[in-house]
Description:
Elements: H1 2-20, H2 24-38, H3 40-58, H4 66-103
Helix pairs in contact: 1-2, 1-3, 1-4, 2-4
Amino acid sequence: MFGAVAVAGGGDLVLRRIAQTRDVRAIRTAFDAHGRIARLIPVLFGIGLIFGLIAIFVEAFNPFAPWLLLAYPLFIAGVLVGYLGIGRWGDRVFASGHRQRRLGIG
């Protein structure tokens, strides 16, 4: 789960900083590279979920531990923010960069 959060959150932070430069070539390159890595995000979260379930049933891990009860809504909020906020913003920036490529800008 740490790896999934690092890839999901870290990539978004870096992309925002690169987008602020308004350098079309850098934005296009970064978004293309992140797009390939971003495909792994659901896989990494899925692996984390599977290992979490294994820990619950095999190691008698308590799924109702207070820190986990806090983590569940934070995870859901993160997914919603990632999809509804950052994901849509990224799609618009990515589309803009490729639209400029077709027009011969940048």
